[in-house]
Design goal:
341 residues, mainly alpha, two-stranded antiparallel sheet, 14 helices, globular, disordered C terminus, ABC_transp_permease, transmembrane, Branched-chain amino acid ABC transporter permease, transmembrane helix, membrane
Length: 341
């Protein structure tokens, strides 16, 4: 069974997601998983610009905070309905992302990453210091939960779980369509070689900006969901550590794959939860585990699985080739028209 490819594996993951609330022993587990789904959605977006296009955006967590604060400000200070504010968050993040992308993507490699790190820190300072708009360090509290439809309400942890799960499923499906399209192959061509992609007639700047905008839209919408799920916001959400967390999810699961960031974003938060009994020392244990994973599994869990599948397929092909050669050597040679064998 191809666990990380094809319909079987995805169907299994979908079924497990649907069944999880029935196995959860309390609402806290549902809340942890809902938050993991939200960060998984943002990580899928980061993987588009980093794993598929080859540009490491260190402001990704700040764009998630921008989406969250757009929802928080509009709903709390201006009484805008949640879903209208949620759409506005996507628009605001896309517009700001296009502006940042047009400037930053003129740089390459480490220079691009350093530039986006500075942009992310500026966004953090704006959120922390602009009290009249963002409430500063006093936080935004009282954000309403996502409004329901008809008899459906998202006030309970189980309903909120299914809402975040639905957005994650939709986000992964859309990303699957993107990366397996001509546009996705264009992004991967840019990742592999700017020069080669340009020689093929690919407009580097336009496609890099498009990948950047699409990735931050994922972050912005994840931030909007986060605002509705957690119901309060603080400046720490814009900190670069959240981008590093998402990077860790990609590395553990498998960067540049569709299932990898998803698996990493779901496995790592639960690992940290189970290490909570160590309190401040849990990262002393978790850090070396992560280092060992990066050293011995540089392509992540999904990358390791793919490598083993390729080796298995290679051995099967070699075995079939040897069997065919042996069969051909035993077969009698065909007679020719002159009567000689």
């Amino acid at each position: 069974m191809k666990l990380f490819e094809g319909k079987t594996g995805w169907t299994l993951l979908f079924a497990l997601g649907l069944a999880f609330p029935f196995a959860a022993s309390n609402d806290y587990m549902l809340t942890v998983m809902s938050t993991a789904y939200i960060f998984a959605l943002a990580t899928v977006g980061l993987n588009l610009i980093t794993g598929y296009t080859g540009q490491f955006n260190l402001a990704h967590g700040s764009f998630m905070a921008l989406g969250a604060y757009t929802v928080g400000i509009l709903t709390v200070d201006h009484q805008v309905p949640f879903w209208l504010a949620f759409v506005a968050a996507g628009v605001v993040v896309a517009a700001f992302g296009a502006l940042v992308g047009l400037v930053s993507l003129r740089l390459r490699g480490h220079y691009f990453s350093i530039f986006t790190l500075c942009v992310g820190y500026i966004m953090f300072l704006v959120i922390e210091k602009w009290d009249s708009l963002t409430h500063g360090v006093t936080d935004i509290i009282g954000i309403p939960a996502p409004s329901g439809f008809g008899l459906v309400s998202f006030e309970t942890p189980r309903a909120l779980y299914y809402l975040t799960f639905a957005f994650l499923v939709l986000g992964v499906w859309l990303m699957h369509r993107i990366v397996n399209s001509l546009l996705g192959r264009t992004f991967m061509a840019i990742r592999n070689s700017d020069g080669l992609a340009q020689s093929l007639g690919i407009n580097l700047m336009r496609n890099k900006v498009l990948a950047f905008v699409l990735s931050v839209i994922y972050a912005g919408l994840a931030g909007g969901l986060y605002a509705g799920a957690v119901r309060f916001l603080g400046p720490d959400l814009a900190g670069v550590e959240h981008t590093f967390d998402m990077t860790m999810y990609m590395l553990v699961g498998g960067i540049g794959t569709l299932a990898g960031p998803l698996l990493g974003a779901l496995l790592v938060p639960w690992l940290t939860q189970y290490l909570q009994f160590l309190q401040e020392y849990r990262f002393v244990v978790f850090g070396p585990i992560l280092i060992l994973l990066v050293i011995f599994l540089p392509n992540g869990i999904v990358g390791l699985y793919h490598a083993r599948q390729h080796k298995r397929a290679g051995r099967a092909a070699a075995s079939n080739g040897g069997a065919n050669a042996a069969q051909n050597s035993r077969a009698p040679r065909a007679s020719h028209g002159d009567g000689h064998a």
